[in-house]
Amino acid sequence: MLLQDLNRIRQIGVIAARHGFGEWLERAGVWRLLGRREKVEVSPEAQRASTARRFRMLLNDLGPTFVKLGQILSTRADLLPAEYIEELATLQDHVEPFPLEDVYTRLRESLGRDSSELFKQIDPQPLAAASIAQVHRAMTLEGDEVVVKVQRPGISEQIDSDLVVLRSLARLLEAVVEETGIYSPTGIIDEFDRAIHEELDFVHEASNIRAFLDNNRNRPYMKIPRVYDTLSSRTVLTMEFIRGVKISQAELSPEDRREVAGHILDASFRQLFEDGLFHGDPHPGNLLVLEGNRLALLDFGVVGRLSRAMQETLVMLSLAVALKDSDSVARILYRVGVPDSRANLVGFRNDIEALLGKHLPATLGQVDARSLMRELLDLAVKYRIRIPKEYALLSRASVSTEGMLRSLYPDLNILEVAMPYAKELLADRYDPSQLQGGLMRTLLRFQSLAQDLPTQLSQILLDLESGKFSVTVRAEQFDKLNDNLRSAAIVMFMGLCACGLIVGAFISFAQTPWQFHGLPVLGLLGIALSAAIFGAVFTWYLFGRRFGKVSVSRWLTTKRR
């Protein structure tokens, strides 16, 4: 480990101890690694705060990389307990904007030309400044209004350096932290590594924007900004500037609120069940209201993707939750997850039944979607079922969407809105007019069974093809017959060997001139060896058949292998 890494660990250790995590550092051997123990007083605020809040305060004080770690973890309810997720969701970037000269330098390094050759003008005052990048309004040479997202200089190198330190700390913590969840500390850092490098690559974000633009071409109520490819790169992203008002600041009449809420719901369902591509962070700051109650989505750094199979599973899960069918919910979650061991499906189902009864009254204004989603994921973690990250991200996005809908139109009925989409998606399999009550539950269970059986049969066929599948048939009479046949074969083999030695002895008796006291030497040896073999065979057969069954059979089996 490099000296600067050790210095960074020492800084982290001091700040962590100030927030009340000194005991963990002691148990993990951090001070022993550094060669000295730091004397740090726990701050009064940390003494009064919960562990989750102290963790959030710690990440905030450690700087941009750790703030971004907290923000990414706040979208992953499958990684951390619910109280940590709620605290981390409040993390905000508080960083000073970098100078305009650095923006010009970054543009020249990334796009190969001076800013004056790329833009007619760039607003010196940034629209936003965050730990990864900052955003400026600008105008292209053709006169188009755009926004330019410029990556912070040196941020990639800083994150890579901090990741080395984080991995070292994670390995130390794994030795002392009790694993109550599914992921280890190093597993969490691996997830962060993948997510942060995706966010650092603006080419990835530009690809997301183009996909959203293509998916929403025929939805007149939704506006997606256009990407300027010639003015974009891995560290610079130029997009169309959209004039609008943040949804949290828009002044809308009751009729307008109902219409906007309908647009949000329709867009959400279409993203999930038609496009297979959904916005992973639809908070009020990323959603604008335009003229005519149209909507505009911003910031596509975090998106989720659903395969066709995942979409169908999501339909089944949504309907099962809406109908309070705990059996189907349990089986669907068990199927989509990756259990660490055989789960107690009965206990899982009973806990889900209690959860659904607690959280599902009739109208959206009464449903606490945040708690429902959180507790469903907590139950999966409790039963050690690893839910795919797409579903965890969807949970976070659903909670944000639910919050906006609650503020816009709290009396919206969930079943009234969800059923038409569900019927449309199931139209190719079932008669939509019959999807009601008990028949719906039956169809859900049939759908679950129909999806499980091909998977299980496919696994059996793959095992047969690869030679991993075997069937053992045991019968007492067959075992006895097998032992008797094997014993008889051994006796016959040994007898034949003895007969051969006797014949050889007589031949030697007749032809060999070597004699001892007038008797042929080889003949005597042959007869003695034959007698010894006969004696051993009959002794084993009469008194040691159990020994023969176990040892000789094992020897023969080993030789065959």
TrEMBL record:
PROSITE patterns xref list: PROTEIN_KINASE_DOM (PS50011)
Domain of life: Bacteria
One Pfam family named in its UniProt record: ABC1
TM helices/strands, residue ranges: 488-509, 521-543
Alphabetized InterPro entries for the sequence: ABC1_dom, Kinase-like_dom_sf, Prot_kinase_dom, UbiB_kinase
Presence of the UniProt keyword Transmembrane helix in the record: yes
Signal peptide: none
Coiled-coil blocks: none
Keywords, in A-Z order: Kinase, Membrane, Transferase, Transmembrane, Transmembrane helix
Sample GO molecular function, one term: kinase activity
Protein kinase domain mapped to chain residues: 121-449
Record keyword Kinase present: yes
Family: Belongs to the protein kinase superfamily. ADCK protein kinase family.
Name by which UniProt lists this protein: AarF/ABC1/UbiB kinase family protein
Organism (species): Archangium lansingense
